[in-house]
Amino acid sequence: MAADAARAAPRQQGDLGPEAAARLSAWLRDYRTLPGVPDELFDVMRRPRADWLNLLAGFAEYPETESRSRFAAATRHIRDTGVSYRVYGEETERSWPLNPLPLILGHREWAQIAAGVEQRATLIEAILQDIYGPAKLIESGALPAAAVTGSIDFIRAMRGVAPPGGRHMPLYAVDLGRGPDGRWWVLDDRTQAPSGAGYALENRLVLSRAYPALYNSMNVQRLAPFFDGMRKGLVASADRSDPRVCLLTPGPFSETYFEQAHLARYLGFLLVQGADLVARDGRVYVRTIAGLKRADVILRRVDADYLDPLELNGSSHLGTPGILEAIRTGGVAMVNMPGTGVIESRALLGFLPKLCRQILGESLKLPNVATWWCGQPAEHERVDREFDNLVIGPAFNTYAGSGEKSRPRLIADLSSAERATLRARLNDRPGDYVGQEVVRLSTMPVLRGDRLEAAPFVLRVYAAWTPEGFRIMPGGFCRTSEIKDVRAISMDASARTADVWVLDDKPTESTTLLASKDDVKVRRILGHLPSRAADNLFWLGRYIERAEATLRLARSLCTSLMVSDSAIHSSGETLEGLQQLLIEWGALDKDAPAGSSLEAARCTVRDQDAHGSVIYLVRAARRTAASMRERLSADFWALLLNLETELTDAHRAPQSEAEALEQVESALQILAALSGLSQENMNRVAGWRFLDMGRRLERGINACRMARTFAHDDATTDDLDLLLDLIDSQISYRARYLVGIAMIPVRDMVVLDCFNTRSLAFQVETIKHHLKALPTLQDDGMIEEPLRLLLPLSTDIETTEASYLTIEKIRLFEKTLMYLSGAIADRYFLQGATAVPTIKLASMG
């Protein structure tokens, strides 16, 4: 703490200690800028800029080992909380790549950027108002009709529709790069469904944790006011005072799903997929366990073409049938409005400078990359004449055969045959292409090891409409390239990210998203749980419990075959029953040789292809949890990832039965921590009830299966002893029965004992308590199907005497639990087109 306090104020080079000064000098001396390319660290006279020098001096104060350990500790947060992204076409997610150094922008320069972004957002909103309104720009010839209607993102169904709050585009983002002349240039407009704001939050969290004193001392402007304004703007677009705001995601396979979940959690919005919504009578509703609940505002991250399979892309599974009609009738506010993506077409870029002068009466403060749409004869001729020196790109956001959005092509990088093919296509359909000037981006310093290197970068800045007007995020989302190519066209290759620190000239006040006491109505129920979330939580509980049960079997397998005097169940039918149960569960191959304990243990725990193995179940749990990250704490997610790492680490592959047993015990401890976390840290609302019901149902089924396997009529003492091990009841049994192990009391403890937390009876009573606490769809007083199945089962268990408990009765209990699982799904997991609750829509809130 004292060391942190000493570094509270950034120092100049002369104020540093010898080691820090030498380190900073080496950074500056060895830093190599790219020829003819401006750099953020040095001015035109190759003098370090003051703000950057202060930052680097602060970093130099940390010894190399401490700096690395601080950043490593902070970036562990990235792994532990699953901060990730997905590259298009890849099945697995990648961990979020973050540079230790932020991009630094002074307050004066930032004021110019913010003014330019606000002007551009205002201009684009005016163009959208005209395109989907009177169309005077097209009528006057200021904007060619083909440049608008040729875009797949132009939604004719939205013409004449009044947007909520009077704005088509409440959220806007723009990609900027600094050109050779030192000015900031617009590379791309993001008007469809701007992404990355959640990642900007994560970048800020990691760096502020790694270097808190440095962060506070440099007067970095906070991000919270932007998000507060954004949230207020979304709420203001609704027609109710207490609206339900949803964030519509394409789902867990989206490239930026984590960011969407993080943003929904941070802003307090409901994260939904298209199947979670239903459009009825001009309104949109969320499918919840309590029936359909109205969605007032939808912040979408789904491209407009996929929103409504009835009116737009009929093959879409990401949208909701009828949602466009609900938008047209004003039954839901959509942000951004469908059709705003038309502005992202490169065909329009070349018209914006003239339109700005015509509409706003002023020149663009942030100029475009020079762009010529080839749908005009003069521009086509110019592009054809300068073909070899340009970037040729699609005029509209079309898709290549792979499904990926087609990208601009730098002619200088193409072969002769590729150039000829592209030129022929351009001349055949010139309106489909634009020519653009090759942009050479400026560079910024990044740390690689202990060296400071120059990297090209692009800055994404966000604007959100609030009741007070546009608010610009002070900072944004910065991407850097690992490749020493400063042409904007190459920024997608090997990209990393950096936080963006906008410095103020005075200390900044701490801000939060806390509302005033008069703005919030007290609640003790966290809204209405979407059916999909209930489904996922239910199965998350089942996967975790099934993994625990399999680990207990694996533990018994290890101890059964260890060569020692204390080994138990070492031969005979007990071992066969143990292995047979593992085979039935899909955790062990049926051809596994008996007595091969180490291989059997390895397969049970680590076989990634066996559908019943522990690692298979843990990965299923992780995938299920990934689809609802906004509902799980960072600690829960970290434990789940630690468990997967524990079971897949090649260096931890067991080489002996003792090592296999140690790994199993370690995994069981992590599962115990997960269980404790869910019991002690989750609010007792519907989400927790479904998670716990999944565990209880799975545990009850497993108790029945284990009882049938090891407490059959011809069971031996070893069988019954193993069964007590599997249900973790050895201590309880021996404290209660001093005469030794006997069949009837063991069956009673496993199946009928309501005081044993591992028994079937305890699970049934707990599930009954959960079901009675959940909402009902009808108010006619009739019992719903899950309780209709469960109540007779509960009564049967309560009234059965242990001496009359047979294997057939246990089998009947197990079948009833299986039916109960289906009844819970049918009642609460309202998905699909035919899943319509019986409650009247008119009475829904």
TrEMBL record:
Gene3D superfamilies noted in UniProt: 3.40.50.11290
InterPro entries named among the record's database cross-references: ATP-dep_Glu-Cys_Ligase-2, CP_ATPgrasp_2, DUF403
Annotated Circularly permuted ATP-grasp type domain residues: 102-480
Top-level lineage group: Bacteria
SUPFAM superfamilies, A to Z: Glutathione synthetase ATP-binding domain-like
Pfam family, any one: CP_ATPgrasp_2
DUF403 domain boundaries: 529-829
Protein name from the UniProt record: DUF403 domain-containing protein
